[in-house]
Design brief:
Layout lengths: L10 H10 L1 H21 L5 E10 L9 H4 L3 H17 L3 H14 L7 H7 E5 L6 E8 L2 H22 L4 E6 L12 H25 L7 H8 L8 E2 L11 E2 L1
Antiparallel strand pairs: 1-3, 1-4, 2-3, 5-6
Helix pairs in contact: 2-8, 5-6, 5-7
């Protein structure tokens, strides 16, 4: 007969053990949930996102252009999509940052920002895949400032573009609006995340403690774990066990 015991994990026993320590699980889960709320609400700075949209037209169209010349061909669309990558670099570069700082100083008397600060606030990305419409996204801790910077980028986009690219034009699609609520942090998401982490952490602690527990188990547990009957038990009546009868299994 093989006397070696198989180390298997009984899901039923694990669930019963978790239920036995439900108070600990509830306490830890609530602790993580409440902590997530307070950290998010009082220790993470709120940020506001304002978005403006521009369209890159690769054609040079003037008042004398014919209808045939003004038609937007497939090649024009392809060229416009390629120019999006160029605009991403131009609208987040030093030249645009200088324009933003100059206009902020004139309009709002903002002088405490540097070029690197402004460049970190502005991101440019395609509105959707395969399109020549771009989102100019500005994230700051002030909703009014976010909208101002985004609209300054709109104002200077065509000039900055033409300084580098000879053909085409940048057109405004949508101006930026002042956001009425912060874009981050997401309080609800962080609370749910704290709840999940707290619940998983408390369950993991209980399971690990149970697996590393080397104490002798009562008869019923031993029979269920090893699948063999016990012939006899030897009790130690001199053992100093807290609570109940003063004996333990040997």
């Amino acid at each position: 007969m093989d006397n070696s015991a198989e180390n298997t994990i009984d899901l039923k026993l694990i669930c019963l053990n978790l239920l036995k320590h439900y108070k600990f699980i509830i306490f830890v889960t609530l602790l993580f949930t409440v902590s997530s709320f307070f950290i998010t609400k009082f220790f993470i700075t709120e940020k506001y996102t304002s978005i403006a949209q521009v369209y890159v037209d690769p054609r040079n169209i003037n008042s004398e252009s014919t209808d045939v010349q003004a038609q937007l061909s497939y090649n024009d669309l392809t060229a416009a999509e390629k120019l999006v990558n160029t605009c991403q670099i131009l609208f987040t570069g030093d030249r645009m940052a200088e324009c933003i700082l100059s206009d902020l100083k004139k309009v709002s008397n903002v002088t405490d920002l540097s070029i690197s600060d402004v460049k970190e606030m502005v991101t440019v990305e395609a509105a959707t895949t395969g399109t020549s419409v771009m989102n100019i996204k500005v994230v700051t801790t002030d909703p009014v400032l976010s909208a101002k910077i985004a609209n300054i980028v709109l104002k200077n986009a065509n000039d900055v573009y033409k300084e580098i690219v000879e053909g085409g034009v940048v057109k405004t699609v949508n101006e930026a609006l002042v956001p009425n609520k912060p874009s981050s942090p997401n309080v609800i998401r962080n609370i749910i995340l704290g709840f999940v982490i707290g619940f998983v952490f408390s369950c993991a602690v209980i399971i690990v403690l149970e697996l590393v527990d080397t104490k002798i188990k009562p008869t019923d547990d031993l029979m269920q774990m090893y699948g063999i009957p016990l012939f006899a038990e030897i009790l130690d009546f001199d053992a100093n066990v807290k609570g109940g009868d003063h004996y333990e299994y040997k």
